[in-house]
Amino acid sequence: MTDVVKSPAAVSEQGGMGYLVSLPRRVVTIYLPLAIFLFVLLFPFYWMGVTTFKPNEELYNYSQHNPLWIESPTIANIRKLLFETDYPQWLVNTMTVAICSTFLSIFASVLAAYAITRLRFRGAPTVGLMIFLAYLVPPSILFIPLATMVYSLGIYDSNWALILTYPTFLIPFCTWLLMGYFKSIPYELEECALIDGATRLQILWRITLPLAIPGLISAGIFAFTLSWNEFIYALAFISSTEQKTVPVGVLTQLVEGDVYHWGSLMAGALLGSLPVAIFYSFFVEHYVSSLTGAVKE
Amino acid sequence: MAGLLNNRAVLSVLFMFPAASILLLFLSYPLALGIWMGFTDARIGRPGIYVGLEQYLSLFDDDVFWLSVFNTLVYTTVATIAKFGLGMWLALLLNHALPFKAMVRAIVLLPYIVPTVLSAIVFWWIYDPQFSIVSWSLVRLGLIDHYIDFLGTPWNARWSVIVANVWRGIPFVAICLLAGLQTIPPSLYEAAALDGANAWQRFRHVTVPMLMPILAVVLTFSVLFTFTDFQLIYAITRGGPLNATHLMATLAFQRAIPGGDLGQGAAISTAMIPFLIAATVFSYYGLQRRKWQQGGADD
Fold first, then answer.
1. CA distance to B125, B133, B220, per residue, from B140 (Å)
2. So what's the ipTM on this one?
3. B121/A146 touch (CB, cutoff 8 Å), yes or no
């Protein structure tokens, strides 16, 4: 029972009456199911990693080699991916598109969220609701008309096609998130600045934005991850190999006919997931708060 | 000039301009254009002329279209129920006092942040008919005697993609519900326990009502994104075998982009809109109820 004796603060923080449950019961009702959940949620990543570093003779021979382990690790799959395919170029494309569309969206969202929450122009609540509704319009019903638009604008098969279309789902999300942050900043601060003769732009730049930095980081991280993961637009608007993004490139270029090179496919999946995973690990708290904040608002 | 920049009306227009122009140009206009294209016979490289309801009439007689509607409904219903059942369970587990709680929570979210297509490729490999690690493990444990053909038969394939979707969706549901659980005051549980409520009654009569507003919103998002799912199916089965896993979104893509029949693809996409509106209305009332519970404050 020693492990469940906590300070009163810790007990109340953990939601109440956990201290009433005995240790063996905790193991069966909490730790065991949790361990199974974690195993199932993590196993595909383990399998991705193991397959990446396996030589082919182990990969396709389960009777002589235990598939769950690597006997002689190799980096041949990663080398093949980096030097015999356009993978580095896909990484550059994905990074360019993700960074540009994130900055564009944050810029537009900050201004829109400030106008809606602070300038309170006529119809501002309606505009806020429209922006929320825009977030509910899924890319799956927009990609066909967007493909024809992208084509007639002459940006088909270029990074611009993605940089300009990704904000359609990033701006609604970021604006909605930032509106929540701006609302939490006391209005009195801005009134003081107004009385002291600051202009609206100065207020936004010197008072509201510095206070909303956690919100900006959350929105930025979320937007970056969403753009990195985007698939359907990148699949529909890009046709040439060297313009593709990582998710599309891995799926369409590494599968040759009926022969699946599972080693390099998994290497592609691993290297494509690592940047977001590392990025995510630095900002977990921001990420969680933006995810849950957007839902709670 | 300075006075103009301090005029609220002028400033509002200026501030709204970037977001509004992008959303109107790349969201509202294509939405309308898509509905219009559903009434034309547009093909790739040809704008198309108005043909009335022809596309919808041909879809009405199209068995593959109805199969995709059926698949989409099965996929959405089963996956959503599983995601919410398991996600709620995981959230309740995570809400206990745990060692390394922050780390566990960070790990739980991993499937959600990794690009869906890339994790879908891993599932494709896990479902491989010859080298499936799941089949291998089950054979080694003596539970089955031959390898499972995960993606070879219609119902196997449907269940396989649903499992992959649930795997990816649990973290989102669990973390959102966990955030909701943490806002429930422990005193409510203590009061209920003193009144003699058992664990199930506390869950049913304290947790669920307190979570309802956030549950409604998360449910709407989840239904919406599962219903319009594209990438997972495209990566794992491309709609096969025998169109058994085609969702409306993948069918629209297949008819429009590789097939070149933009009009019909747009008609299929447009046919998804009524379902989306139903889900959105549901979300709106969920949000309203939350405001009402907080004392009717409008913001």
1. 19, 10, 41
2. 0.87
3. no
